[in-house]
Design a protein that fits this description.
By secondary structure, the chain is α/β, with parallel strands linked by helices.
Length: 356
């Protein structure tokens, strides 16, 4: 496989030059399993593990390779396996807060150009969930595109598309039916040769079915959703980078039971541009949008120009991001204290060893 087919470019080549001098080869992570990766490059596809030095030097989980990453590898003499020595700088990364109580980031996909946020037009239609995903995409550095799948199961497509367009400012909204191959050409227009797209969304929205439609075969396993609530079952169990026959690459991801945001309020402002624009019109710059006079947000809620659900979701995500920022600051302060404590202990030990 040619490196250019995997998205290789001059910028990556520049970053790789120091590793080239060390006899390493460039490769891209196409699948991620527990402690092992499948990587592809000019040599073909091999399994690879990170080196012991890489593991020792790496402190954060998010610094380990993720699907979509470009890595510097050393092939074995038989060229049937490889060792990963470094991860090249990422131009973008879709990140979520790790599930559970830990305040850690998890990289879902790296070096992506377009992120398709997939939602269902069936009984699981959820604009608030779409807003959450779009906020995370803006933070990633990729361009969001909303795909509303299962148009064949929707009685009023126009109304639901309009509802999403009203909350998705300047973000394309594509209604499709992957099972009937309707609207798939609209999706393909956003995937260019040498560029990488990722499909994101909860279980059952049809991410793998859409990818099968783009591939023209049934490579990705799919399942039906539950009839009682239209919720899906997990079909895709790992992230995978796939080359499309017409050029371009896509990353399929497992459905997420929860998408914990790992972003700042700048990403929120891009998702809720209408709310931010209204807030800027309030009489007082520190308006809490409650009982203050001259509140443009309160006036918009009263005259119906601002949807109450949209406003509530904005407040919910804003509280979540502020809580996350506090947890991250606290964790950073603890890490700084531990660093200086270690430095002090090392200095004390050095003095004792030298008899000072």
């Amino acid at each position: 496989m040619e490196l250019n087919d995997l998205g290789w470019n001059e910028s990556l080549a520049e970053h790789f030059r120091p590793f080239e001098d060390q006899g390493r080869s460039p490769a891209r992570v196409i699948r991620e399993h527990t402690h092992i990766y499948a990587v592809a490059g000019a040599h073909g596809e091999v399994l690879a593990e990170v080196s012991g030095k890489f593991t020792y030097d790496t402190r954060r989980r998010s610094d380990f390779p993720a699907v979509g990453d470009w890595v510097a590898i050393q092939l074995s003499p038989q060229q049937d396996k490889a060792t990963i020595h470094a991860v090249l700088p990422r131009k973008s990364a879709f990140v979520r807060k790790q599930a559970g109580g830990k305040t850690e980031e998890q990289v879902v996909a790296a070096n992506i150009d377009t992120a398709f946020v997939v939602g269902g037009l069936d009984g699981d239609f959820n604009p608030n969930r779409i807003e959450r995903y779009v906020t995370a995409v803006w933070e990633s550095g990729a361009n969001p595109v909303i795909v509303l799948n299962k148009a064949d199961l929707c009685a009023d497509i126009v109304a639901r598309v309009a509802a999403v367009e009203a909350i998705a400012f300047a973000v394309p909204v594509l209604p499709v039916s992957a099972t009937r191959n309707q609207g798939m050409d609209l999706v393909y227009r956003h995937i260019n040769t040498g560029k990488t797209a990722v499909f994101l969304g909860s279980s059952g929205v049809g991410k793998s079915t859409i990818i099968n439609g783009l591939l023209g075969d049934s490579r990705q396993q799919v399942q039906t959703v539950r009839e009682d609530d239209s919720r899906g079952r997990h079909t895709t169990t790992h992230r995978e980078l796939i080359s499309l026959p017409g050029g371009g690459l896509v990353i399929d991801t497992p459905g997420m039971r929860e998408l914990g945001l790992w972003a700042d309020e700048d990403a929120l402002k891009r998702t809720f541009e209408d709310v931010e624009a209204l807030a800027a019109q309030c009489r007082f710059s520190d308006c809490e949008h409650g009982s203050e006079p001259g509140c443009a947000v309160k006036a918009a809620l009263e005259d119906g120009s601002l949807d109450p659900g949209h406003w509530r979701n904005y407040l919910k995500l804003k509280r979540e991001l502020r809580y996350l920022a506090g947890r991250r600051d606290h964790k950073a302060r603890l890490a700084e204290k531990q660093k200086w404590r270690k430095i002090a202990m090392d200095q004390r030990r050095m003095k004792e060893e030298r008899g000072w």
